[in-house]
Amino acid sequence: MSFKNLKVERIEDQLAITLSKLYPTDKFDLVKIGEKKWFLSDKYVENGDKIYSFEIRPDDTWIITYPRSGTTLTQELVWLVANDMNFDEAQRRTLIDRFPYIEFTLLYKHILFCFSIETMMDSHTISTIISNNEKKNLYKYTVEFVQNQLSPRFIKSHMPLDLLPTVINSDCKIIYVARNPKDVVISWYNFQKDCKIFQYQGTFEQFCNNFINDHVNYSPYWEHVKEAWAMRHKANLLFLFYEDLIKDLPGTIKRVTVFFNKSYSDEQIAKLVEHLKIENFRKNSMVNQPSPRSTMEPKEFIRKGKVNNWKELFTPEIEEKFNKWIADNLKDTDLIFPN
Predict the structure, then answer these.
(1) CA-CA distance, 3 to 76, in Å (whole number)?
(2) Can you state the angle between helices 316-329 and 181-194, rounded to 10 degrees?
(3) Is 47 within a domain?
C-alpha cells in the first residue's frame, strides 16, 4: 500500500474535547492511521511519507519499540556491541548523535511551542532568534539528519512496523523490544506528565483507560508488539523482552553479540554490564538526554528501570481491568512475557 492510500480517521466530537483538556499544550489534532488505526499526531498525515518511504541501507540498524519499553538502554547496548565496545567514543558523543530518533520533529512540530513556554515568547519569534547551536541540536531530531548519517547508520523509532514498510522489507538489522504493558503504562504516564511536549493533566486512572482504549500516542499497544512478534523468526530481526534485559543483562548482551556476528571476552561483557547498570546509566550525560531544551530532569527521563514497578501504583480495580485486557489480547497468540 502506498502512503497516500493509508486510511485517515480524524479524532472528533467528545473524544477530541476530552483529549484537548488532558493535553492543553498540544496544538495539533490527533488521527488514527491505517487499517490498524495507529494513534498519532495529524502531522503524520503531512510528513509521514518521509519515514514510510525512507530509503534503507543494508547496513542500517533499527531499534523499534513501543515507547517506554527500554529503548534507550537497548540503544546504548546495541551501539557498543556493534561498534567494537568503543566506550571512548560513547563517552564523547551523545546517544542522540550516534542513534537518532527519526520521527521526533516529524510528529512533534510544536517543539518550538515548548521553547515559547520557557521564554514567554511566541513560536515565530523563537524560531528566528534561537542560536545556531540550538538549531544544530534540533537538526539531530530530523529525518534529514538521519538520511545524511554515514554508514552504518543506527536509527531509533517508536513507529509500528506496519508503518515502516521499507524497513521490514529490507535486510537491515532490526531489534524490537517489548515490555509488560503494566510497566509500560506507568512509565508512559510519568513521562507524559513530566515532559513539556505533552504536559498530561489527567489522572493515572484516566491515562490507563486511554491506554487500554488505544487513545495514547503510538497505540494500539498490542498491535505494535504482536506484529513484531509475528516476524521474530526473520533472520534480520531480533526480538527482545525488557524483562530479560533487567534480569539477565549478560545473557541479553551475548544474544545481541551473536546477532551482530561479534565476539567479546567475559571481561568486555562485564564492563558493558557495569556501564548499563541503571544507577550508572542514569548518571551518564551522553545517554540521559530527554530532548532539546527539555525541562525534564534526568531522573524523570531514565527512571527506576524496574520490572513489576506497576505494583506500586495500580489499584485493585486497575489491576483487574488490565488483567482482563491482557488475557483477552493474548488469546490468539503464543506471546508470553517473561514475568
Answers:
(1) 32
(2) 120
(3) no
CA atoms of 161 and 3, how far apart (whole Å): 14
Q: Which cell numbers in the block locate residue 33?
A: 492511521
Residue length of the chain: 339
What crossing angle do the helices spanning 266-276 and 71-82 adopt, rounded to 10°?
Answer: 150
**Among 80, 102, 58, CA closest to 235:** 58
Sign of the alpha-carbon dihedral angle for 236, 242, 244, 249: positive
**Cα gap 204→193, rounded to integer Å:** 10
> Does 180 reside within a domain?
yes
Residue 176 backbone class (left: φ over 0; alpha: ψ -120 to 50; beta: rest): beta
Q: Is residue 337 part of a domain?
A: no
pTM, full prediction: 0.88
* CA proximity to 284, closest of 69, 90, 81, 82: 90
Domain containing 215 equals: 57-102+141-329
- DSSP SS3 for 191: helix
Q: What is the pLDDT of residues 65-79, one digit of tens each?
A: 999 999 999 999 999
CATH code: domain of residue 298: 3.40.50.300
Going by pLDDT thresholds of 50, 70 and 90, the confidence category of residue 50 is very high
Please give the C-alpha separations between residue 218 and each of 16, 95, 157, 335, in angstroms, as whole numbers: 17, 22, 11, 20
CB atoms within 10 A of CB 119: 12
What is the pLDDT confidence band of residue 56, given thresholds at 50, 70 and 90?
Answer: very high
Q: Is residue 26 part of a domain?
A: no
Give the separation between CA 98 and CA 134, rounded to whole angstroms: 18
Tens of pLDDT, residue by residue over 226-283, are: 999 999 999 999 999 999 999 999 999 999 999 999 999 999 999 999 999 888 888 8
